[in-house]
Amino acid sequence: MKFYQMSSGEIVVKQCNTDIFTLTEKNRDFIVPIKTLLLSDYALVCRGWQYMNLESRRANSNYYDFLNVRQFFKCNFN
């Protein structure tokens, strides 16, 4: 997999044998396994996620999962 950050801040993902796509909240088939991997292998990085507004996180967990994954890529694969 390759990750690129555009000047607009968007994350572009290129997986083997697939099309290039811009990471959005709707990419659940990509976000869910990546977040699971991050939670298991990068626990220290993910520790800060618990401090997000808990009520808002429950109301829109898909959006917060997207924000978590996007922020990880922005910080670590810039």
Description:
The chain has 78 residues and is an alpha+beta fold. It has four helices and three strands. The protein has a three-stranded antiparallel beta sheet. Helix 1 crosses helix 4. The protein is globular. The two termini are 14 Å apart.
Determine the strand fraction and express it as a percent band: 5-15%
Structural class: alpha+beta
Strand order of the largest sheet: 1-2-3
- How many beta-strand elements? 3
Low-pLDDT runs? none
- Ends: how far apart? 14 Å
Q: How many alpha or pi helices?
A: 4
The largest β sheet comes out as: 3 strands, antiparallel
Write down the overall mean pLDDT.
82
Residues in helices, as a percent range? 40-55%
Query: What radius of gyration results from the CA coordinates?
Result: 13 Å
From N to C, what is the helix and strand string? EEEHHHH
Sum up the overall morphology in one term: globular
Q: Summed up, what is this model?
A:
This protein is of the alpha+beta class and 78 residues long. It has four helices and three strands, in the order βββαααα. The protein has helices spanning 28-41, 43-46, 54-59, 61-76, and strands spanning 2-5, 11-14, 20-22.
List keywords for this structure.
three-stranded antiparallel β-sheet, 3 strands, 78 residues, alpha+beta
Please specify the SSE layout and strand pairing.
Elements: E1 2-5, E2 11-14, E3 20-22, H1 28-41, H2 43-46, H3 54-59, H4 61-76
Antiparallel strand pairs: 1-2, 2-3
Helix pairs in contact: 1-4
